[in-house]
Structures are given as C-alpha cells and as structure tokens.
Amino acid sequence: MVNAMQRTSGSGAARLPGTAPARSPEAAAVLNLQQAAVAVSNVMRTALKAHHVSHAQYTVLRILREAGPAGLARHEIAERMIWRAPDVTRILDRLERRSLIARARAAHDQRIVLARVSDQGRRLMEAADAVEQEAARQVMSRLGARRLRVFVNLLEELQKET
Questions:
Q1: Residue 151 lies in a domain
Q2: Is the pTM higher than 0.85?
Q3: DSSP the chain
C-alpha cells in the first residue's frame, strides 16, 4: 500500500504531498483514514481483477450471498453497499449477463424484482474470497495481531458515532 500521506517534522500532522498540514489532529485522522481506505480499496480492486469482477460487483455478490436464497430487491442491495453506488441496476445487469446472479419477480408482489446469487456466482465468490482474504492479510499484516484488534475496535467505535 503506497502511503501518499507525509508527516511534517515532529508535529504528527498528516498532509497530502504539496499541501499544507491538516489543521487539527481530528482533521489529520480523517485525512489519513480516507487515504488508507483508498489504498486498501486499490489493493482489493487489483486482487479481484484476476476474477474479472469489480470491487462493486464483488460487494453486490457478497451482499446477495449473505441474504441467502430469498434474495434482495435492488433498493435493499443499495442500502447495504459500503460505498453508495448510484448504478446498482447496471451492476446487477452486468452480473446477470455473466450468469452470476438470477433475477425474478417476488411471489408476494410482482412489482418487486429479487436478485439471488447463482451457482456460477457462488463458485466465483469461493475463488474470489480467497484472493480477497489474501489481499486483506497483505495490507493488515503490518499492524500485527494486537494492533489490528485495537484498530478494528477503534473503527467500530467510529461507526457508532455516525
């Protein structure tokens, strides 16, 4: 993971190359968190390329797999996305063309179209999961087990606040 952040001499303030340091420790923390998220996302995106699936497509497949055989409607998938993707319909179209998902009208309400992971999609997910896990290990191994647990706890605490 390439760190685009630099530290100013002794202040601990983060900054992007060619910019002024962050104005506060909180701003520095947010800036570092954003940069780390982009770097981790880039590692994941690169790892998933081998399976010809984008990070957004992988995320949709993961959401559908977790939903189980009942499947989910488009708006339910959109609500569960980490990054709000305005193009969930287009992602579903691409996954369906590749036979990675199947869509069908809900029995209880014909206006609702439910998406489910297909057998082919499950096979792709099994292979991609291993790649994704290895990429996560590659990125997070720098922290060591104790610091990683602390990091996860801190991130969980931040999510409670938002």
A1: no
A2: no
A3: -----EE-TTT--EE-TTSPPPSSHHHHHHHHHHHHHHHHHHHHHHHHHTTT--HHHHHHHHHHHHH-TT-EEHHHHHHH-SS--TTHHHHHHHHHHTTSEEEEE-SS-TT-EEEEE-HHHHHHHHHHHHHHHHHHHHHHGGGHHHHHHHHHHHHHHHHHH-
